[in-house]
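Reminder to self: tokens first, then the designed residues, so the page reads top to bottom the way the pipeline ran.
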């Protein structure tokens, strides 16, 4: 399978998926990286591995960015099967969602549907979790629809919130699990181990 990874930041999830793909635990290859920030860590890492980097969307800061229809055409030309959002902070246009129906997933650093949606990104998520008094948090991987963080949930992992956690402590604990969970989910995706419940909820079948 061929994968596109969308990044806006450091790209540690992208890096762990790339490593798993190179060592063969994911039966898929990252064909292209899409970013809205040409200088971000994820884009730099892609260039260092000779993975093509595409800019999207076109903005004042990134005048070479593609339009949504050019992005769809480019992803098709790379024969991309699945799109993985890994710290990509822009909304995905409807045109792309329709072109890649049930094939775009995102990772979010809280147990959705709690602490998700516009405004809940980066450290803000972990600060809000700690402020609420919640005793558990953890990453969610979900299908992407036209809103932030509302698509059907595909996988979650529980991480404890400790009494004296600062947002950075919780973020680091969640991020470590994100790397494991994302690799497991992408491996399942590439092996066609996703089945669909009648109500549209995706389920992962174990390997045996
Ligand atoms: C992760 O916490 C992810 O859940 C969120 O953005 C962060 C990206 O981290 N969507 P990285 O760029 O993969 O290091």
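Designed residues (208 positions):
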């Amino acid at each position: 399978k061929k994968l596109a990874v969308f990044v806006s930041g450091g790209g540690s999830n992208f890096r762990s998926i790339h490593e798993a793909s190179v060592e063969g635990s994911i039966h898929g290859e990252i064909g292209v990286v899409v970013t809205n920030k040409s200088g971000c860590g994820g884009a730099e890492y892609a260039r260092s591995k000779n993975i093509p980097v595409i800019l999207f969307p076109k903005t004042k800061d990134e005048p070479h960015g593609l339009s949504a229809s050019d992005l769809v055409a480019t992803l098709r030309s790379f024969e991309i099967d699945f799109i993985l959002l890994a710290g990509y902070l822009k909304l995905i246009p409807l045109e792309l969602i329709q072109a890649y129906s049930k094939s775009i997933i995102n990772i979010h650093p809280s147990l959705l549907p709690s602490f998700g949606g516009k405004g809940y990104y980066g450290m803000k998520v972990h600060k809000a979790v700690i402020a609420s008094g919640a005793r558990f948090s953890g990453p969610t991987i979900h299908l992407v629809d036209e809103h932030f963080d509302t698509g059907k949930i595909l996988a979650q992992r529980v991480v404890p919130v400790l009494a004296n956690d600062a947002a950075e402590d919780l973020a680091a604990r969640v991020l470590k699990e994100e790397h494991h969970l994302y690799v497991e989910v992408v491996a399942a995706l590439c092996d066609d181990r996703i089945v669909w419940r009648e109500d549209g909820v995706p389920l992962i079948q174990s390997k045996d």
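The mean pLDDT is 97.
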